[in-house]
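queue> pop job 88
queue> type: inverse folding (structure -> sequence)
queue> payload:
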């Protein structure tokens, strides 16, 4: 029988197992998945739900599953030049590229074409494997209101 994961929970509980997913799957609200213990499950989450590393999901019968961000092939750009990094973010954002942004660093899913563009802006790009946690947007989880 497939486990039906129906919502994120905010009160930490002891998970039965974990579910490791790449970014592209952590933004899907309906998805058939294999838990890390080999059990089959389905995501039946509210539309627009984004899963982050360490989130917890609960099934319709109370089973708790911990979410893990899978390691992915990333491009990492590090610089002390905040203007160059801002320009890189602008150009990548203009291409609707999901970005993980922190002080002096940005990361995106590896793409040789984007790497070439970033190098053209005078920045060095390093390829690495790591979990990916991009920005979810200014209105994520809040709805979009014009008050």
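queue> result:
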């Amino acid at each position: 029988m497939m486990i039906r994961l129906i919502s994120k929970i905010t009160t930490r509980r002891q998970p039965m197992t974990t579910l490791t997913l790449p970014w592209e799957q952590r933004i899907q609200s309906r998805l058939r998945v294999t838990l890390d213990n080999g059990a089959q499950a389905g995501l039946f989450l509210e539309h627009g739900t984004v899963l982050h590393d360490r989130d917890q999901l609960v099934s319709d019968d109370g089973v708790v599953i911990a979410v893990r961000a899978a390691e992915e092939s990333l491009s990492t750009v590090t610089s002390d030049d905040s203007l160059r990094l801002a320009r890189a973010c602008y150009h990548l954002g203009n291409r609707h590229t999901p970005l993980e942004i922190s002080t002096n660093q940005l990361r995106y899913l590896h793409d040789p074409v984007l790497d070439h563009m970033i190098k053209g802006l005078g920045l060095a790009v390093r390829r690495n494997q790591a979990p990916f946690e991009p920005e979810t947007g200014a209105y994520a989880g809040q709805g979009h209101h014009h008050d």
